[in-house]
Task: inverse folding
């Protein structure tokens, strides 16, 4: 296949970036999207140019490192996968593919297609934990029975990989799905209920401080989330937040 | 409690509550208006009651105006913040792939409806205020039907009316159901609530449009 | 030989750990505030250790090359975590878990360490549940278990196919709590480039800020290396792309012995390589072998026709298929341990029976399972005269319920429907049992330098059992290091902050800068990946699933030559004082080129076959591994002496007092 690429290049955080055109021949359907970029980079290195920097690590859809906006959609056209799981057979000979970094004020570009997602870190640090010591001197695990339904829901929320596709997809660059996934996971478990009120308030406060936009319930995040995290989690966070604020 | 006012979630809840209030008001409004098609007398009676009842005039009317202002101002604030949250735009953005147009363009439908509200205020509210307070004319419980029907005589106003309610329908299509999510309601009843909200979003504006067309086609002949 | 003191406490096996904890020195809480610890790597071992240190009161600095501690490759572990909870009441115990682990490791691990691992395993589950890790539960609300290969009890706790993710996020949350309290300073997108020794003790590291390229000095009273394994030296593996040996290798070069580098786990069920462009291999869970039957064509002509696309596997008659695992190992069949299954697949493909275009794949066929489940389902739902098509449909539904997400993942990658045509699989490098040599306290041969998780060699011997890696990482971090590190730090309560302007730091930083300059100023002919791929090919061909003296000798020569070529001709574009992924890769590959040679030397030295290490010269007439307990019941610990070829071997004899050493058999 012949593929025309339009890729965002930006030297560093303070430079202005621009879209640069590349053409690739001999792209095979069995290649993953990132392997296609690997080959492009090898070509660039051979030509003496600086290769394109992009974030990636596990290449099996679980670490959440890869973060490309492909043809206007985070992680590309296929649903429920990350970029590293996207294969070139999802494209056709002669296609033009626009590749940009995830865009949000809270995710400044570091270089080329790499963005700084430390805002997510700070949200987690503000309350994404249960305040229990790591001594192991807690109660026996089976002393806390949990309804299977709640355990399953908590798991589904906890499956978030923190990639930022929700923010990238949202027209408002809102981080509600990300934040609510952690709030929800703990709100659904008895271990997490103890400090549920403080947690939701602290995490939402930090989320707002980071400059993410407001949620307007478009549902784009849920559609683009590679792990299919549900909008129910956002509703649950709203509910938790309201009750915490009113009681607090 | 103070965190409730400052946070993004609180702003959304304010949006949702003011919106739901306006939805409720629409129901009342459409009911009264519809009487103009069935029975001019009932319409006159109701209109007169609304225009001269103290509770309605001095409590409900200011609350309604406040609701509109809050909904509008908050909408603008949210839009401003949301635009700023992505300072560098995408070269290519395929919103249609993951969300309905209406949900992404509430500001457009909202502003059109707002513009219409301006006209509506001029037509009815300013007129009422002038009649009652500036010109201090006497009470006339029979004038409302005629005044209303006359407004629909010009085709341009009827068209504006139809277009505006079309956009209101779009606005409600997303906004009504969405307000429940904002307030934290998403459970097994959600599909039913959504269906109801969407039916409402179509029926209510449709009735308004029907009334407009009906009066336009059936002018009062003296 | 006297250099290696494993510091195993005396006394009965089951009491060693308690006794040891009672006897080692402690640091009082007020003094802990004056002590700094550096943790390199933030996976299960590093993350849990950092959180625990901080909670005890130490000042912790963590370093990871990823943009968040949450992205460490522990996150990709699928199956589960073992613990001797005996919740199923099926006779599990600490001893049984200990026994299974030592046996699974082919009697090449240290008894006392493994027993301690089993002893704390239950605590890990308690700890994780209280942290909110959403393990799978049954309808009664209690924790569910499943069983894994090589054992007779059900002791594996799991969270769907994402157990590693959930456990890592638990440790990450514990870290976040301490970051929030200011007790951990987290340095992300930072890579450790060297260890700094002051007066013979580990007192800091040199790290590179991967965004700015800045070289930074960080000091502490102790350094913990938890940077994972080195399997990425094979280029293609199930490791993440960034996985590297730099932290461990730099530590080795500064004096820490490297143990058993040749022990590598090759996982039998991975998606095969599809072409030269391949960058990484994806694992398909071991659980698939419960229902899938592994086969290749019986006739070479059929295999050739299949490779050329002229024949479909489904067209091959039953009698023309060779279910080689069932044929060779009738007792265990398709469920033989990983090392055995991997070697058998390689044997068939080497003989020309491979089934994909590269000839390196075998079939994992669910057809029999689909039909079996289908007929069962038809019976139980009262369908007496269902035809084949209907039964197949019912069977596919059952299989989908069990493995749906894996089948979907396979289809995404390979673009073939595994319900209709058999899956293709091939072994891939998955884990390294070898690592930095550590004593019972997890201290390396450098005082004050510790190693945890996959980075050390401690618990798995020559082969790791499924669901044991997560257990070991968390045991080291939550329950072992927090105690044992105090024994060393007790002497440091009056030391005060370690200055970073000392000669030792100057020297280490200069070494690092020189190395970077050398990389940047080589002739610039071949890219870093060029060398990495070449190294990977040598490793895979000659140090992979089976090895022989001839091949290993060649490998040693070839790797040394490749390393020389690399340093002369590598091409690193861009600048050193900038974000530069090629420079990052170059530094990592440079170290792989050294450990690769040591790996081959270790494999050559070990004249026996055990666990993941299979030497063709040492096998039974039936082709099974032949251990030599007389001469090789020891841990190889290599001391750095300049070039890898000059490394000096030290032997730690393994003593088995509580377990009878036997031959593993799966016939």
Result:
């Amino acid at each position: 296949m012949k593929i025309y690429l339009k890729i965002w290049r930006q030297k560093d955080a303070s430079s202005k970036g621009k879209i640069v055109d590349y053409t690739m021949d001999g792209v095979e359907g069995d290649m993953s999207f990132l392997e296609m970029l690997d080959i492009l980079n090898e070509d660039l290195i051979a030509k003496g140019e600086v290769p394109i920097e992009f974030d990636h690590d596990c290449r099996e859809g679980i670490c959440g490192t890869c973060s490309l906006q492909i043809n206007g959609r985070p992680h590309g056209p296929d649903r429920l996968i990350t970029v590293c799981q996207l294969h070139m057979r999802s494209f056709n000979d002669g296609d033009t593919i626009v590749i940009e970094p995830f865009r949000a004020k809270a995710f400044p570009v570091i270089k080329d297609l790499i963005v700084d997602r430390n805002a997510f870190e700070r949200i987690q640090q503000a309350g994404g934990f249960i305040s229990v010591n790591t001594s192991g001197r807690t109660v026996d695990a089976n002393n806390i029975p949990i309804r299977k339904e709640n355990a399953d829901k908590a798991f589904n929320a906890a499956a978030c990989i923190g990639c930022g596709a929700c923010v990238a997809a949202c027209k408002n660059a809102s981080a509600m799905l990300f934040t609510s996934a952690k709030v929800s996971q703990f709100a659904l478990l008895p271990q997490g209920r103890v400090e549920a009120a403080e947690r939701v308030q602290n995490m939402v406060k930090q989320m707002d401080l980071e400059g993410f936009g407001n949620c307007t319930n478009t549902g784009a995040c849920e559609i683009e989330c590679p792990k299919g995290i549900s909008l129910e989690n956002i509703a649950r966070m709203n509910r938790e937040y309201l009750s915490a604020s009113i009681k607090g | 409690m103070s965190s409730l006012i400052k946070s993004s979630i609180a702003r959304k809840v304010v949006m949702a509550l003011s919106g739901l209030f306006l939805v409720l008001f629409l129901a009342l409004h459409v009911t009264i208006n519809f009487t103009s098609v069935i029975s001019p007398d009932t319409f006159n009676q109701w209109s007169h009651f609304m225009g001269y009842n103290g509770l309605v005039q001095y409590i409900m009317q200011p609350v309604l105006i406040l609701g509109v202002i809050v909904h509008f101002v908050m909408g603008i604030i949210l839009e401003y913040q949301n635009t700023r949250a992505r300072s560098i735009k995408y070269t290519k953005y395929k919103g249609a792939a993951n969300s309905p147009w209406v949900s992404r363009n509430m500001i457009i439908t909202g502003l059109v409806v707002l513009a219409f509200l301006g006209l509506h205020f001029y037509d009815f509210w300013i007129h009422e205020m002038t009649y009652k307070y500036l010109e201090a004319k006497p009470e006339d419980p029979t004038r409302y039907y005629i005044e209303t029907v006359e407004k629909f005589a010009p085709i341009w106003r009827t068209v504006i009316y139809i277009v505006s309610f079309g956009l209101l329908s779009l606005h409600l299509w997303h906004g009504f159901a969405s307000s429940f999510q904002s307030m934290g309601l998403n459970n097994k009843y959600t599909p039913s609530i959504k269906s109801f909200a969407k039916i409402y979003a179509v029926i209510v504006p449709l009735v308004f449009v029907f009334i407009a067309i009906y009066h336009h086609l059936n002018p009062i002949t003296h | 030989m006297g250099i290696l003191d494993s510091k195993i406490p005396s006394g009965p096996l089951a009491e060693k750990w308690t006794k040891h904890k009672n006897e080692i020195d402690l640091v009082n809480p007020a003094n802990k505030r004056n002590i700094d610890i550096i943790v390199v790597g933030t996976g299960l071992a590093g993350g849990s250790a950092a959180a625990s240190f901080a909670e005890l009161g130490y000042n912790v600095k963590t370093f990871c090359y990823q943009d968040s501690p949450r992205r460490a490759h522990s996150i990709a572990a699928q199956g589960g975590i073992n613990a001797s909870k005996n919740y199923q009441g099926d006779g599990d115990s600490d001893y049984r878990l200990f026994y299974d682990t030592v046996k699974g490791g082919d009697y090449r691990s240290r008894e006392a360490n493994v027993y301690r691992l089993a002893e704390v395993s239950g605590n890990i589950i308690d700890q994780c549940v209280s942290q909110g890790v959403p393990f799978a539960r049954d309808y009664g609300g209690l924790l569910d278990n499943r069983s894994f290969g090589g054992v007779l009890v059900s002791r594996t706790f799991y969270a769907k196919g994402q157990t590693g993710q959930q456990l890592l996020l638990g440790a990450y949350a514990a870290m976040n709590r301490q970051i929030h309290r200011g007790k951990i300073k987290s340095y992300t997108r930072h890579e450790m480039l060297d260890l700094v020794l002051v007066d013979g003790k580990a007192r800091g590291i040199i790290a590179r800020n991967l965004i700015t390229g800045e070289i930074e000095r960080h000091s502490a009273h102790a350094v913990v290396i938890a940077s994972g394994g080195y399997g990425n030296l094979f280029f293609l593996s199930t490791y993440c792309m960034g996985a590297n040996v730099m932290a461990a290798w730099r530590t080795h070069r500064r004096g820490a012995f490297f143990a058993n580098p040749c022990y590598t786990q090759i996982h039998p069920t991975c998606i095969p390589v599809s072409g030269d462009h391949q960058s990484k291999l994806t694992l398909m869970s071991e659980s698939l072998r419960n229902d899938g039957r592994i086969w290749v064509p019986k006739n070479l002509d059929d295999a050739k026709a299949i490779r050329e696309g002229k024949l479909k596997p489904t067209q091959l008659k039953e009698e023309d298929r060779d279910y080689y695992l069932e044929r060779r190992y009738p007792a265990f069949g398709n469920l033989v341990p990983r090392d055995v299954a991997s070697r058998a697949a390689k044997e068939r493909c080497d003989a020309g029976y491979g089934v994909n275009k590269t000839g390196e794949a075998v079939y994992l066929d669910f057809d029999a399972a689909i039909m079996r489940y289908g007929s069962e389902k038809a019976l139980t739902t009262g369908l007496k005269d269902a035809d084949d098509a209907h039964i197949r449909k019912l069977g596919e539904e059952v299989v989908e319920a069990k493995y749906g997400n894996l089948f979907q993942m396979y289809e995404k990658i390979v673009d073939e429907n595994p319900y209709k045509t058999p899956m293709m699989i091939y072994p891939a490098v998955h884990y390294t049992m070898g690592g930095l040599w550590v004593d019972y306290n997890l201290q390396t041969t450098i005082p004050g330098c510790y190693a945890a998780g996959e980075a050390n060699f401690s618990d798995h011997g020559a082969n790791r059992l499924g669901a044991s890696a997560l257990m070991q990482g968390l045991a080291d971090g939550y329950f072992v290091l927090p105690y044992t590190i105090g024994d060393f730090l007790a002497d440091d309560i009056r030391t005060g902050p370690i200055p970073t302007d000392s000669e030792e730091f100057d020297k280490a930083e200069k070494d690092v800068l020189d190395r970077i300059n050398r990389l940047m100023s080589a002739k610039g002919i071949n890219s870093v990946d060029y060398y990495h791929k070449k190294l990977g090919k040598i490793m895979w061909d000659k140090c992979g699933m089976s090895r022989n003296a001839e091949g290993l000798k060649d490998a040693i020569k070839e790797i040394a030559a490749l390393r020389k070529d690399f340093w002369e001709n590598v091409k690193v574009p861009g600048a050193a004082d900038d974000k530069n992924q090629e420079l990052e890769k170059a530094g990592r590959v440079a170290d792989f080129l050294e450990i690769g040679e040591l790996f081959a030397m270790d494999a050559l030295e070990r004249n026996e076959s055990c666990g993941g290490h299979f030497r063709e010269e040492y096998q039974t007439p039936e082709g099974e591994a032949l251990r030599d307990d007389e001469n090789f019941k020891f841990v190889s610990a290599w001391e750095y002496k300049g070039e890898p070829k000059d490394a000096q071997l030290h032997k730690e004899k393994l003593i088995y007092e509580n377990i009878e050493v036997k031959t593993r058999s799966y016939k």
About this structure: The first helix of chain A runs from residue 33 to 46. The first strand of chain A starts at residue 3 and ends at 9.
